[in-house]
Design brief:
heterodimer, A: mainly beta, seven-stranded mixed sheet, B: mainly beta, six-stranded mixed sheet, four-stranded antiparallel sheet, 12 strands
C-alpha cells in the first residue's frame, strides 16, 4: 500500500491567498484526520471524518479554515484567506476502527505551509 | 475525557545509554495505548502499542508495558543509537475514534 498521500509537500504563498491541501487516505480506512503542527502549539487535531462525514471540527481555528471529504479516497483542507500565523506543517492521517476499538493512525508525510 | 501526560524534553543522551520517557494517562476503562515516533522532516509513525493491561509492546529495541496500577506506559530502550534521535509521542484513544497525543518528547542522541 502506498500509505497516506498528501500534496503538495511544500507550499509557499502570500498572505490573503487561498491555500488548498490535499489528502488521499489508505484504501479501506474509515477515519480521516487533519492535524496541524507548530513549534509553539505542538500537534493539534483540526477536524476528523468518519465515513466521509465530519465528526468533530472543534479544532478548526476559525472560519477561514474549511475541510471536505467528497468521497472515501480524497479530502481537502482549505484556508481562505491565508495569514502568516497559519504557517505550519499540516498532517493528514487515516485509520480503520475495528470492533469499536480505536486502531492505529497512519500519518502522511505532511504539507509544510509558509505564508509570507 | 481521557488524557495523557508525558515528560518534557529535550532529552539528550550519549550513544548506548539507557532511555526512559515517562507517560501517564487518565482514562475510562482500559483503552489501547500507543507510542508514536516522528523523525526529522517526517510524519508520525507507530512505534509500538499495547491493547490491554500488562501487555508489553515492543519494536526496534523499544519497549513499553501497560501498567494499570500506576496508569503508566513508559517507553524504554536499553541502548540508544544516534538514529533514535526523534520526537516521541504517547497517545491513547478518546471517544469517537480519535487519539489524544502527549506534547511530545524530543530525544537527541550524541555519538
Amino acid at each position: 500500500d502506498a500509505g497516506v498521500i498528501q500534496s503538495p509537500r511544500h507550499e509557499v504563498t502570500e498572505m490573503g491567498q487561498e491555500v488548498t491541501l490535499r489528502c488521499k487516505p489508505i484504501s479501506g480506512h474509515d477515519y480521516l484526520f487533519w492535524y496541524r503542527q507548530t513549534m509553539m502549539r505542538g500537534l493539534e487535531l483540526l477536524i476528523y471524518f468518519n465515513n466521509n462525514v465530519p465528526i468533530d471540527d472543534s479544532g478548526m481555528p476559525e472560519d477561514r479554515f474549511s475541510a471536505k471529504m467528497p468521497n472515501a479516497s480524497f479530502s481537502t483542507l482549505k484556508i481562505q484567506p491565508s495569514e502568516p500565523r497559519d504557517s505550519a506543517v499540516y498532517f493528514c492521517a487515516s485509520s480503520l476502527r475495528r470492533e469499536g476499538h480505536t486502531d492505529t493512525q497512519y500519518f502522511g508525510p505532511g504539507t509544510r505551509l509558509t505564508v509570507l | 475525557g481521557n488524557s495523557v501526560t508525558q515528560m518534557e524534553g529535550p532529552v539528550t543522551l550519549s550513544e548506548e545509554a539507557f532511555l526512559t520517557i515517562n507517560c501517564t494517562y487518565t482514562a475510562t476503562g482500559y483503552p489501547s495505548l500507543f507510542w508514536y515516533v516522528q523523525y526529522p522532516g517526517e510524519g508520525l509513525q507507530l512505534l509500538l502499542k499495547a491493547t490491554k493491561a500488562d501487555d508489553k509492546g515492543s519494536n526496534k529495541g523499544f519497549e513499553a508495558t501497560y501498567r494499570k496500577e500506576t496508569t503508566s506506559f513508559h517507553l524504554e530502550k536499553g541502548s540508544v543509537q544516534v538514529s533514535d534521535s526523534a520526537v516521541y509521542f504517547c497517545a491513547l484513544p478518546n471517544q469517537g475514534g480519535k487519539l489524544i497525543f502527549g506534547q511530545g518528547t524530543e530525544l537527541s542522541v550524541k555519538p
